[in-house]
User: Fold these one by one.
Assistant:
Number 1:
Amino acid sequence: MSTTKTIHTRPFAGQKPGTSGLRKKVAEFTQAHYLENFVQAIFNMLGDCRGKRLAVGGDGRYYNRQAVQIIARMAAANGFGKLLIGRDGLFSTPAMSCVIRKYATDGGIILSASHNPGGPDADFGIKFNGANGGPAPESAGEAIYRQTLSIDKYLILDSEDIELGRIGKTELGGMEIEIIDPVADYAGLMASIFDFDKISQLLVNRRFHMCFDAMHAVTGPYAREILEDRLGAKPGTVINGVPDESFGGGHPDPNLVQARELVDRMNGDAPLAFGAASDGDGDRNMVLGSGFYINPCDSLAVLAANAGLVPGYGEGLAGVARSMPTSRALDRVAQSLEIPCYETPTGWKFFGNLMDAGKITICGEESFGTGSNHVREKDGLWAVLFWLNIIVESRKPARSIVREHWQRFGRDYFTRHDFEGIDSARAAEMIERLRERASGLAGERAGELRIQAADDFAYTDPVDGSASTGQGVRIFFDDGSRAVFRLSGTGTANATLRLYCDKYETDPSLMELDTQRTLAQSLQAAGEIAGIAEFTGRTAPDVIT
Ligand code: VG1
Ligand code: CO
């Protein structure tokens, strides 16, 4: 017999969700009561949980399975009616969004710290998605945080672990548990959007070789089933496809630095036509053409411009959206399609309302995240399939598609410079000082450039009117370039400063320039205005994307 226990607890400081849920070191998460407090705070925020239905799963990192067991016991004790769990405790973030929507659960809990490294000495994370399948909006995040500040007890069942490896239904303390295949529903959704027959013809073609790097994270089983099993891509197309608790010791961050193996293969003896990588929880993607890096801002714009080639978007796009630091390449596509383009703060939680209200169909971020209203999350594999569908319909390689896009719309050169592991107090001081000065910067000279306008980005949700302030300082220069400063909200130690920079070019003969050189002057000016060297002690960024 299992019995419900009431455990007395005390609040932990700092359980405030960031850009994408709560992320901390594993050592912090595994302290007695730490995870439990946060989970109970989610349940308290939801109110009366009796009879409610919840989906649970994660990216397979260290502590994923234990966390699923704890959540199951707590859900049963709190009176939930049903729990849907991905087999082995797995769900990619987009698949979770798909499952919440398909089975109309009251929400879902995703165990992931996305691209942050995994393992006993690395990071863990937890995020709550609502009934629409999307990340909890800021107001819900605030409500959860308030609960964590006053929590004094949580409910948990005293019971054996449940079997996570076998598909089927069981019961725990009166709550139904159903273990489901984490891939099937998602794969079915992809098949309903894209032309699988045509993509399959491309992938079985002896001359078209591609590689998908799952980076030892959750996308492996998804990519294998969809690309290799359903679409017939050659065995071995998916590399690093078995989820590992510490992601093979790497950072599952799809960029040129972390996805080294993919990059090497792209440039190897047998050149590949197309390459892609996804992050820890499968919501972000990097796509590469043959010898050609595709900037995520351009990728987003290309998807929007070519959506008409994909069956799922044949009826056209209602509108599009991008996060503020993302380049304005998307805006140019929207203008030509005569559809609205929304500019939101960083993080997927701001897109959900726009999608629910039918205002946008496709959206994305500069950080390798793109998605559409098929779910309420960014979706890495979806973007890869989208690209393949465009390639097969246009009969052009990825590289030509991007080049032709630039010729038609002009090119937005874009880069992001990350200064990692910097002192949190100094970083906050730097941003604070920029904020205070922003409104007075217009007209000032900075190196060779003059500042045309500057502000501290604020956003009012056009659907529910909620306001979000302090979302990044923007500086617009008189040569049409733009610099943006903000601090990362996904790290677990110290601070990371992100400096984003873009510049629009319309001269057809200037479409193939070096990005860093093209943006050097603006980056230099931005660095001087903010005093990056002075505040961070750094003269160069740690990561450039
Ligand atoms: C980063 C990215 C942001 C993305 C977020 C979550 O946030 O910049 O665009 O939405 O990660 O992505 P920040 O606050 O560190 O800049 V994921 O794939 O970690 O869920
Ligand atoms: Co992610």
Number 2:
Amino acid sequence: MKETIAAIATPQAVGGISVIRISGDEAFLIAGKIFKSVSGKIPAKMKGYTASYGAVVDIDSQVLDHGVLTVFRAPHSYTGEDTVEISCHGGLLITKEILRTVLNAGARIASPGEFTKRAFLNGKMDLTQAEAVSDLIASGSKQAMKISGEQVQGSLYRRIQGVRQTLLSLTGHLAVWADYPEEDIEEVEAETIMQQLNGVKSDLKKLLSDYDTGCMLKNGVNTAIVGKPNVGKSTLMNLLARREKSIVTDIPGTTRDVVEDTIVLQDVVLNLSDTAGIRETEDVVESFGVQRAVEKINTAQLILVLFDNSRPLSDEDFSIIERLKDKPAIAIVNKSDLTSMLDVEKLRSEFERVITISAQDEDSFDVVSKAVSEVLKLEEIDPAMGMLANERQYACVNEAYRAVCEASIILGEGMTYDAVTVVLEEALQSLLELTGERATEEVVNQVFSNFCVGK
Ligand code: GDP
């Protein structure tokens, strides 16, 4: 019999309602000791998915609070075990007292992620789905939320399933053919195997190459705002952050170092850096800022480069354009409210995307937001297709890809099907590790150690 665990499932803060979750073989028994339903219902006799209103009492039968108890019967619960949830008033002390009473009545405090770990161990979800639960909770943008939401529903698992099936049927066929040469089993043509391996290789490669996009959506896109002094970089930063973070003045060189902020556009989080205006300068402090701005350009995943609509392009502008060659950049012509002196056509020939705005006008937020979405091709991302969500998953798929590549090389060299099978088994092993079907206890514990208590 597994120990019954309990924890507060809601945040450790004052709120309207708090929920205490109890899961395990003795969940109903323990609930029966501390919950007195007004209608006389007994948790152990209640049907699954039913609720009852009553008093939560301590060991001396003193009433601690009134609340609602909900019953989930195994296997139809989050963990797959008998589960009880008590919704009480959301006071910090009340909630803690009720948890203490539940523990005194026989439950053990749950460790971080233990409810989800039990769901995984009870076959309610695979490891990629379990990982997605904590990603979903942590997601900071709509796209990240959609991707994690689909992952909780098994999108990555399904995507991997196709690859796995191909590998399984291939290794199965090769093994039978190699082990029973006397049987009349049709030999698989090396060319047919090669075709299948190529298909698997390209599926795995696509999964690996989508990883960076997934990370960007999850962790935010490192974005640098650059341009020569006084083009409106700080004003744009404040517009996007919707508050005053950078100092706006008409004195060139005011932003002397990088100012950073995290902002949420509609679909995506941007980790914004407003950099010092890039120009030649004698000022030691300013030159340090300029150097940092150049470093930011080199590491940014997206660059918003500003130009002043009211002035012709200068040598400083041209040297910035030169630095941005082959970088993912959006050219922003700022100060559209002033008479245009700028050669926009020249910018169009240098940048894939050019937009014109006034950073002082709030409506420009949507214009920038739309351009960012388009340049990052966010519309093209289908949240349902399943993406790798972390380094562990990436490493498993990378290892499977390496093994499949090796298998096709040795097949090409004319080695025996036995040798090919051995390497393909390694690829399968990595995919089973990915889904948790053959992951070591250490890996599983590591995954759940990142969870919060109560999930
Ligand atoms: P930075 O040096 O590139 O960070 O530029 P700032 O954001 O400090 O802006 C420089 C000057 O341009 C300030 O006086 C701003 O008020 C002004 N400015 C910024 N955006 C606009 C705009 O869209 N229109 C006009 N007319 N002035 C702007």
